[in-house]
Design a protein that fits this description.
The chain is an all-alpha fold. The protein has a domain of 43 residues. Helix content is 64%, strand content 0%. Helix 2 runs antiparallel to helix 3.
Length: 85
């Protein structure tokens, strides 16, 4: 569908309203869920922190670049046969 970054940018520019609506829809439901979880327990600071961190993908970025182990994909060596020396 998208062959390069320019085609992705063009798609976003052509559908800006759709992206804004989807972002606001997601943010509203995420905020509502976090409000029920954090703010009703008299902890509004966690509500704001998690809403901001989650919305901007900071938690995902931290996981990928800090907390996960990057494993190099290496070519597996084929086992040597008995008749090869």
């Amino acid at each position: 569908m998208f062959e390069n970054i320019d085609s992705i940018i063009a798609f976003i520019e052509e559908n800006t309203l759709l992206f804004v609506v989807v972002t606001l829809w997601s943010l509203a439901w995420k905020g509502f869920a976090l409000w029920k979880a954090a703010a009703q327990k008299k902890n509004p600071y966690w509500f704001v922190a998690i809403l901001v961190l989650n919305t901007y993908g900071i938690i995902d970025i931290l996981y990928i670049f800090i907390f996960s182990e990057w494993k190099k994909i290496t070519k597996k060596e084929e086992p040597k046969k008995d008749n090869e020396a």
